[in-house]
Write a structure and sequence with these properties.
With about 150 residues, the chain is α/β, with parallel strands linked by helices. The protein has a single domain, classed as CBS-domain, CATH 3.10.580.10. Helix content is about 30%, strand content about 20%. It has helices spanning about 10-15, 25-35, 55-60, 90-100, 120-130, and strands at about 15, 20, 40-45, 50-55, 85, 105-110, 115-120. The strands form two sheets. It has a four-stranded mixed beta sheet with strand order 1-7-6-5. A three-stranded mixed beta sheet has the order 2-3-4. Strand 3 and strand 4 (about 50-55) form a beta hairpin. The two termini are about 20 Å apart.
């Protein structure tokens, strides 16, 4: 019998790797990086490459009307970073997202190093595949980088 999505490990559904943006970057540069990388969010790094926050399309939308060429990512990012371990369950991840009203978590290893991102979209896609027994499809283009959808 196949494991329920909620009981799977974060490492089974997460997107490995993530784009990182220095906190002093201008928002206009972050917009370009997100568009070019075909991603919805990036991890913001501070001094010594420590995770300082996450900047997402939603954060950028909330800043609409401000001068994106002048304001820095640190001024609009969501902080502190919400993290989860690779061996935690999807159920635990969902509870953190629900309770924190967030749509993604930074996934860390046992040494607290960033390994990737788990988003609500990752969980929903897995649930749909599970319910309808749809195999993961791999797309090979610049926006999907061979990621399972």
């Amino acid at each position: 019998m196949e494991t329920r999505v909620e009981d799977k490990k974060v490492k089974d559904l997460m997107t490995y790797g993530a784009i990182a943006i220095p906190e002093y970057s201008k928002v206009i540069d972050a917009v370009g990086i997100l568009v070019e990388g075909c991603v919805h969010a990036a991890v913001v790094t501070g001094k010594n490459c420590v995770m300082a926050g996450v900047v997402s399309e939603i954060d950028i939308t909330r800043a609409y009307g401000r001068n994106f060429e002048e304001i820095e990512v640190k001024d609009i990012m969501s902080s502190p970073v919400k993290t989860i371990g690779m061996d935690n369950t999807i159920r635990e991840a969902g509870e953190i997202m629900r309770d924190g009203l967030i749509d993604r978590l930074v996934v860390v290893d046992e040494n607290k190093r960033m390994r990737g991102i788990l988003s609500v979209t990752d969980i929903i896609a897995a649930k749909i595949r599970h319910i309808y027994f749809i195999p993961a499809v791999f797309y090979n283009d610049h926006c999907f980088n061979n990621r399972a959808l």
